[in-house]
Design brief:
178 residues; globular; 6-stranded mixed beta sheet; binds guanosine-5'-diphosphate
Length: 178
């Protein structure tokens, strides 16, 4: 069956930020390709990946940007944030320090991105919660409420909650811009 050209109604740029190794690249490939790649960092240098979804009958192309390792040198540039309508600030629920740095990432975002950008706090690696959790869910809920962020715990590995988190963010963007 020949595929018809898609007529995209909207393109939403979403940036994924957070400390190195929290699972940003894996979240991106889970959402855009439904894949988890154990041999990570194969996507280094790739700027963004896309997935087209339907929201209220409109075709929305989500353009999800990956830092591609820039965050290791705290060199995420303002160009990266430019035009972003949404952001996922990711930490690793097994690494307390990655959660402690979330405030800095939110500051960075607020300094460089548009004020109206929708922000979602995401605790990744929820599959390890039983033995290795270092960040209680309540701490993240409290932070999210204080800073008025959406919040979700997800697992790029199992895929649990990943689509739901991205959809919630994209639906919120949709409701604000359309
Ligand atoms: P990034 O530096 O933030 O882009 O992190 P990566 O996506 O490269 O992931 C860092 C490491 O965490 C890799 O070894 C991944 O396999 C692992 N990882 C990523 N997401 C998950 C997850 O949901 N669960 C588990 N257990 N490991 C994950």
């Amino acid at each position: 069956k020949p595929s018809l050209p898609e007529k995209i109604d909207y393109v939403f740029k979403v940036v994924v930020i957070g400390d190195s190794a929290v699972g940003k690249t894996q979240l991106l490939s889970r959402f855009t390709q439904n894949e988890f790649c154990y041999d990570s960092k194969s996507t280094i240098g790739v700027e963004f990946q896309t997935r087209t979804i339907t929201l209220q009958g409109k075709l929305v192309k989500a353009q999800i940007w990956d830092t591609a390792g820039q965050e290791r040198y705290r060199a995420v540039t303002s160009a990266y944030y430019r035009g972003a309508l949404g952001a996922m600030v990711v930490y690793d629920i097994t690494k307390r320090v990655s959660f402690d740095h979330v405030a800095r990432w939110v500051e960075d975002l607020r300094a460089h991105a548009d004020d109206s950008a929708v922000i979602m706090l995401v605790g990744n690696k929820a599959d390890l919660a039983a033995d290795k959790r270092a960040v209680p869910t309540e701490d993240a809920v409290e932070f999210a409420e204080t800073h008025r962020l959406f919040f979700s715990e997800v697992s790029a590995l199992s895929g649990g909650n990943v689509d739901e988190a991205f959809f919630r963010l994209l639906e919120e963007i949709f409701s604000r811009v359309v």
